[in-house]
Amino acid sequence: MSPFQIDFGNRESKIVGIDLGTTNSLVAVMELTGPRILSGIVPSVVSVTPSGEVIAGAEAREMLLTHPERTIYSVKRLMGRGPADVEEELELFPFRLAPSSDSILKLQLGERVMTPPEVSAHVLNKLKLDAEAALGVPITQAVITVPAYFNDGQRQATKDAGRIAGLEVLRLVNEPTAAALAYGLDKRKQGIIAVYDFGGGTFDISILRLHEGIFEVLATNGDTHLGGDDIDNLLLRIAFEDIQSEWGEDISTQTTGVQILRRAVIEAKEKLSFVPSSMIDFEFGGRHYQREITVDVFDKLIEPIIERTLGPCRACIADAGVRVEDIDEVVLVGGSTRIPLVRSGVEKLFRARPHTELNPDEVVALGAAVQAGILSGDIEDQLLLDVTPLSLGIETMGGLVSKLIHRNSTIPASATEQFTTAVDGQRNVLIHVVQGEREMVKDCRSLARFDLKDIAPMLAGLARIEVRFLIDANGILNVTARDVRTGKEQSIDVKPSYGLSDDQVEAMILESFDKAQDDLKERQVREARVEADAMLAAIEKARRDDAFFALSESERAAVDKAVNELLVVYHSQDYLLIRAKIDQLNEATLSLAENMMNTAVRGALKGTKIDA
Amino acid sequence: MRFYEALDLEPKLALDLDDLKRRFYERSRQWHPDRFSRASPEEQEKALEMTAVLNDAFRTLRDPFARASYFFKESGIDLPKEAPPDVLKEFFELNMELEELRGGDESVRPQVATAYERILEMRQTTDTALAGLFELYDRNEEMRPTLIATAGDLLNVRRYLSNYLRVAGKELNVPLPN
User: Do A214 and B176 touch (CB under 8 A)?
Assistant: First the structure.
């Protein structure tokens, strides 16, 4: 534990910063010396074991190969989306949908059905447990990062995930902004910086002005469905075709095969950032497929994807009201920025050498921890002023959008609008709120329908209801209404277009209270494994001891057998089973322990080591 | 006027932008919800409210067009809604040209680029004129009734200029200067 721990001791608990990524997630915390990553990378993968237990992280990623139909990855792509949105995703991602309503997706994992926020909650819970283990205090509050270009529904879904995981989400921070925080804090920079954030599943570009500790976002842009995943899919397609012609077999329909191939493709892709050519190396069902990919071929393949990131960059520069030459620095975030062609594309557009000092995989989590430090009051001289990425509007006559809050407005931001009735005696007014830049409602994203109800009956046009739309510091919309004539608060029913209702989230939390049992079980499994580790290590050491050779052959065989059996059950989720095998090993090594004790005692008595 | 109050300013048309920014940063440091995450729900609510208004105020007041529109509206003064006819006619032609470029006719690109430069210059001239008018308006109460019509014309012209710059700038791929 850090010696600075004491200085934070007077606080009830720590606020952690979490980078909830498409591919990987990380948790970090602010310390006196700066932000620090706690424990390792947690793959954003969740799996339901055949025994019905939900696991997340590295263990779950292994399940992708053995039980792909019970395992889900890249769930971030589904957050806050409806069934109609994800048809294109389903082509390349093995998401199995359960029958669901229009407003929320449901995923089938083995016999369990889960919504995307619940799946994410399991990843968050894993991070929470890791952080608790690393810090030795309970963690109940967090800052979670989201892509800057996430809409209201996607943000709400992320917040819901936190709640389900038992975390109070104090703030959602945009990922590029978080990166700027980590970077700016480190360097005490002034001036205008651009953050180019190309991750596993999303792309963001933000331009900020840094001024005396204030990080003011001038503009942001992006694409919530563009990332390293798309590059993997291009390579996968090539491999599918090759294998089809070489083996005469369609691998793309075999879930396990696809997962093994995906891993091979990713490995080849990652190598290409450092060497001029690499090999897709795939073994499946006793057959072997190999294909060399050169950087030239790779670059040609991914050029259209990189071009898709440059459009939002240009728009962002224009929206920020700056010229390219005003931008002092460019910061790179996300694993995909390791690709040399991405770097040269960025360099060409911004005419500045991109910064890569901080690990692009860690910088977002570090920034989230900085923001946690700002919220806890540990950091007083820094402040983040972020913007809303999309315009907010309401539906008017003829399916047109009337914009109330424009994109790139600093948040919190608000707008007030008066509504009235169109018919005598009308009791309700329905307000349809959308997000997007287009003029027609059908081209924008529906957020919610607000029903102003119980309006006192009167002549048409007489009612005066003032509705206030407020986007909070998380980028989430809050709506309140009041009757101007009476000054009384007007009741509203909210029907979110996509996502969970408050009651649904509540029910999921209750479920996770039951899950506390699972958490306990998980801890017991972990403890059992730690004990097994110690036991196995001790025996390995003892094998070199004279006492081991003093054992009879059958005794030695019994020890070996018990060791093997413990190894077999070591990875099971049943702690009782692991404990039983530990006990068995204990028993088998009793005479070994006795022998060792005796030799040690005799050695001590005689002052010499005794040969057997 | 609420937006001026939020930044502790007298309601005036002419504002010093550097001073405005300084006030905005100062009040942001004081009232931003990030400073209140361990405060009571009531205090948090107040911080959210203060900051929302502060942000809305800064956004409105830093832009001469939005500021003047807000100022006159709050003063109960109706401005003319349309730009002078000769300006409308000119923009009609410019917009036709721009539409052709948007429709894929690359031959008009040089003309649009030239027009863009000219309109950019016109906006700078308009802004200078507006700034002078704003100061005059603030200082001289008697002249106000006559200044209002001119202000309305200038603001409407500026709206056309800005719209053109926005759309043409996008087609020409040049950033929009503020």
Answer: no
